[in-house]
Amino acid sequence: ERVEIVDVRELQEFNGALGHIAGARLIPLGELAQRSAEVSRDKPVVAVCRSGARSAQAVTMLTKAGFTQVANLAGGMLRWRADGCAVEGGGQ
User: Fold this and answer.
1) Catalytic residues, which ones?
2) pLDDT (tens digit, 9 = 90+) per residue, 33-88?
3) Which of 52, 13, 7, 53 lies closest to 31, judged by CA?
4) pTM of this prediction?
5) In the 3-class helix/strand/coil scheme, how is 14-83 assigned residue by residue?
6) Contacts for 74-79 with beta carbons within 8 Å, 24 or more apart?
7) Over the range 9-43, which residues count as b (16 or more CB within 10 Å of their CB) and which as e?
8) Residue closest to 55 by CA, chosen among 21, 84, 17, 87
9) Would you state the pLDDT for residue 90?
10) Residues 8, 28: contact at Cβ < 8 Å?
């Protein structure tokens, strides 16, 4: 995989109706500061949430933690689904 996808929603959302992006790593936003060592520094990171708000916070946190290639999936899973992109789980 060329990028690491970090989903910062809660577990019930990750497994919920919107589903999640294949290969995404679940690290809820409230745990991200303590668990940032689990995130790859060797490839670009894309943060994902439901609408793009929490993932924007995640980008700020990761940037402050020294990550240099971090992006926010604007619009989050709502836009991802609306655009017809593939998901795992969820109400397909």
Assistant:
1) 49
2) 999 999 999 999 999 999 999 999 999 999 999 999 999 999 999 999 999 999 99
3) 7
4) 0.95
5) HCCCCCECCCCEECCHHHHHHHHHHCCCCCCEEEECCCCHHHHHHHHHHHHCCCCCEEECCCHHHHHHHC
6) 75/51, 76/48, 76/49, 76/50, 76/51, 76/52, 77/9, 77/18, 77/19, 77/20, 77/21, 77/48, 77/49, 77/50, 77/51, 78/18, 78/50, 78/51, 79/52
7) bbeebbebebbbbeebbbbbbeebeeebeebeeee
8) 21
9) 83
10) yes
What's phi and psi for 17, nearest 5 deg?
A: -60, -35
CA–CA dist 25, 37 (Å, integer): 13
| CA atoms of 71 and 18, how far apart (whole Å) | 20
Residue 34's φ and ψ, nearest 5 degrees, are: -75, -25
Residue 76: CB atoms within 10 Å: 23
